[in-house]
């Protein structure tokens, strides 16, 4: 499991036919954020003193900056302010179809930088096997791209380089961060990720064969 790029060679070495997955995606649902206290009680805002109003303005949260919680049903929930809860959903509570919808719903988002921990989100067998081979990635990137090194074994040894740049996604054609393993020992591996909540990325690891492109696994970074 290159745990992505690295995932390709390890998966093949382990001869796990169950790694090859299909991709599908139904419609998803997003909950609207809770109304502010001012909306719930307009009179309270009207009666507030200037000092209190100024303090309230300073503490106000712009709903355009922090998006609403996205509930895809069945416990599959993304929390913009809680990375741990979002990762728990992606790893254990979101079905493959829901994961696919989450990726389709997500914008390109920010490019990862620095050390990012990583987890396989499917297939289940790789969730338990992956940590022995791969624990994340280190991104050497700027606003427009750069490169990454995978963190291999529990010691986090760097290896399996990939170029990082924006490109159309294989899944749906929308913008994605491509992790291209052409410079690595497994040039057939190609990943794509999007930022699904602030500081959490979800994506796919593909094997680009001579005759077809096959999904190896999905993963999350944070």
Protein described:
The chain has 222 residues and is α+β, with helices and mostly antiparallel strands. 26% of the residues lie in helices and 34% in strands. It is built from 7 helices and 10 strands. The chain has helices at residues 5-14, 37-40, 42-47, 50-59, 83-93, 96-105, 124-129; strands spanning 70-71, 77-78, 114-122, 134-142, 145-152, 157-168, 175-180, 189-197, 200-208, 213-221. An 8-stranded antiparallel beta barrel has the order 3-4-5-6-7-8-9-10. The radius of gyration is 20 Å and the shape is globular. The two termini are 18 Å apart. Residues 1-64 have low confidence and may be disordered.
Q: Regions with pLDDT < 50 over 5+ consecutive residues?
A: 1-64
CA distance, first residue to last residue: 18 Å
State the secondary-structure class.
Answer: alpha+beta
Order of helices and strands: HHHHEEHHEHEEEEEEE
**CA-atom Rg in angstroms:** 20 Å
**Major sheet size, sense and barrel closure:** 8 strands, antiparallel, barrel
Shape: globular
User: Helix share of residues?
Assistant: 25-40%
Described by its quaternary structure, the protein is single chain
């Amino acid at each position: 499991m290159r745990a992505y790029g690295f995932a390709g060679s390890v998966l093949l070495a382990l001869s796990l036919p169950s790694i090859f997955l299909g991709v599908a995606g139904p419609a998803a649902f997003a909950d609207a954020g809770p109304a502010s206290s001012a909306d719930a009680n307009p009179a309270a805002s009207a009666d507030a003193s200037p000092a209190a109003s100024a303090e309230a303005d300073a503490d106000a949260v712009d709903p355009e900056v922090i998006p609403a919680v996205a509930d895809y049903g069945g416990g599959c929930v993304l929390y913009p302010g809680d990375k741990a809860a979002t990762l728990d959903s992606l790893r254990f509570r979101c079905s493959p179809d829901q994961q696919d919808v989450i990726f389709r719903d997500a914008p390109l988002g920010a490019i990862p930088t620095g050390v990012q921990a990583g987890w396989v989100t499917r297939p289940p067998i790789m969730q338990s096997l992956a940590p022995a081979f791969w624990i994340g990635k280190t991104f050497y990137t700027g606003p427009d791209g750069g490169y990454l090194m995978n963190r291999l074994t529990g010691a986090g040894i760097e290896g399996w380089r990939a170029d990082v740049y924006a490109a159309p996604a294989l899944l749906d054609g929308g913008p994605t961060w491509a992790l291209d393993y052409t410079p690595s020992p497994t040039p057939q591996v190609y990943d794509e990720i999007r930022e699904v909540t602030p500081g959490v990325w979800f994506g796919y690891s593909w094997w680009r064969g001579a005759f077809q492109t096959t999904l190896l696994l999905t993963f999350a970074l944070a």
